[in-house]
Amino acid sequence: MNTNFDKLVIKYNQPVPRYTSYPTVPFWNDDLDKAVWKKLVKDQFSVHNSRDGISLYIHLPFCESLCTYCGCNKKITTNHGVEEKYLATIEKEFLLYLDLLKETPMIREIHLGGGTPTFFSPKNLVKLIKLIKQRSVIHPLHEFSIEGHPNNTTREHLQALYNLGFRRISYGVQDNDPEVQRIINRIQPLENVRSATTTARDIGFESVNFDLIYGLPQQTMQSIRKTFEQVLELKPDRIAFYSYAHVPWTSRGQRLFDENDLPSPEEKIKLYLVGKEILINAGYTDIGMDHFALPTERLYKAWANGELHRNFMGYTTQHTSILLGLGVSSISDIGIAFAQNRKTLHDYYDCINKNELPVFRGYFLNEEDIAFRKYILNISCQGKTKFNRADLSVLKQFTYPELIKLEADNLIEWNESGLTVTSVGRHFIRNICSAFDLYLRKNKVENSKPIFSKAI
Ligand SMILES: C[S@@+](CC[C@H](N)C(=O)[O-])C[C@H]1O[C@@H](n2cnc3c(N)ncnc32)[C@H](O)[C@@H]1O
Ligand code: SF4
Known about the structure:
Layout: H1 3-12, H2 34-52, E1 54-60, E2 62-63, E3 75-76, H3 82-101, E4 106-114, H4 122-134, E5 137-148, H5 155-164, E6 166-174, H6 178-183, H7 190-203, E7 207-214, H8 221-232, E8 238-243, H9 265-281, E9 285-288, E10 291-293, H10 298-304, E11 309-311, E12 314-316, E13 323-326, E14 331-333, E15 337-341, H11 345-353, E16 359-364, H12 367-382, E17 384-386, H13 392-408, E18 412-415, E19 418-421, H14 429-433, H15 438-441
Parallel strand pairs: 1-4, 1-13, 2-3, 4-5, 5-6, 6-7, 7-8
Antiparallel strand pairs: 8-10, 9-10, 11-12, 14-15, 15-16, 17-19, 18-19
Helix pairs in contact: 3-4, 4-5, 5-7, 8-9
The protein binds S-adenosylmethionine (SAM) and iron/sulfur cluster (SF4).
Residues 63, 66-67, 70, 72, 74, 114-116, 149, 172 line the site of iron/sulfur cluster.
């Protein structure tokens, strides 16, 4: 790596959103008008349900122990007595939506995320999915997926999920080095990852994803090489190689290790580049921000056909316009509006017990938001975008000045009809997207308040 690249890394290592939504969550309204949300859901549902079906994201928040790096919404407990109450509440939430929609939903996609969905017993997961199936029509091309923890995903889980139609599983692997695992409080023998992977494949799962993270405390070039060597023996179909997001102001567990153990930005990007090189040499394609896939994978095909989508779950092959989020902290995206559920279990239970939808904050998009979201999606999913003439004056005022700077650093090529990300620019996609983020550009954020993780 040359020093010029190091300079770019330092220059662009600013707090920037990951753009899993636009506008990003800090710009949503904390007092979402529920009546408007309900009306918009109904309207969108009547247009899209019978045509494309809908997607469900179900958040299952419990984990048995705390991984100190974790930035997810989770609740740590070893008491499995919590499962029944939680699932009964999800059921009520689903029924509240059914009451509102007055039409049987056609389910195209279900994703069980967390927390740790495999914290729940196979029996309880079956109960949950059966209940949803009983109240819905299942799309003939449905895609069901789940996030599993290699330490607690059993053959019984995998068989039960397979029987229900699940064909994709994503495992949190993170890092195999014993010292890193000790510091992040995630002792996970490689044997568990191997067994969870081979069992899933034996049973018939078509795609196995591994989540890995670069930038964890005490990670070194040597340790990350070894992790990749071991991981690649199992040939996961996809790999999400995430940049560690250090946000100790919201994820308090991150205060439990010494910040001095974290790699510097220059070291961190080197960890990424080593991992990326190993993956490319092993036949994976870099399909965008932190995601790699084998050519046989659906995500790769969507990328190659220009059909990739990005939402709260990262990159997806999403085929629907409506994503309903169920469970504590879940986010729904209906194309023209977002809404997030209450973030603590107490508030979530309280709302549902009052027969109220638990959404509390969200955003109704205007035409300008929709146009600029498209630019951000195009850049993050395809590495290029065209510009609409109708947006010219706003682009000139807010975006062009940023594009001039990005071009000077050789991160993009552009003219008045559109933009293409260069090969160097691929490392700075979040920064490039932020040129189209009118909320940042119009300086509506208080600079003193940390909100986003750093770009690198
Ligand atoms: C809900 S967890 C996956 C399922 C399961 N809980 C597990 O850990 O195996 C989602 C993924 O988010 C990623 N993640 C969590 N905290 C992160 C952080 N601070 N920075 C980057 N990635 C993070 C991890 O790679 C993790 O596997
Ligand atoms: S990384 Fe996964 S298992 Fe660990 S605390 Fe976060 S959600 Fe739970």
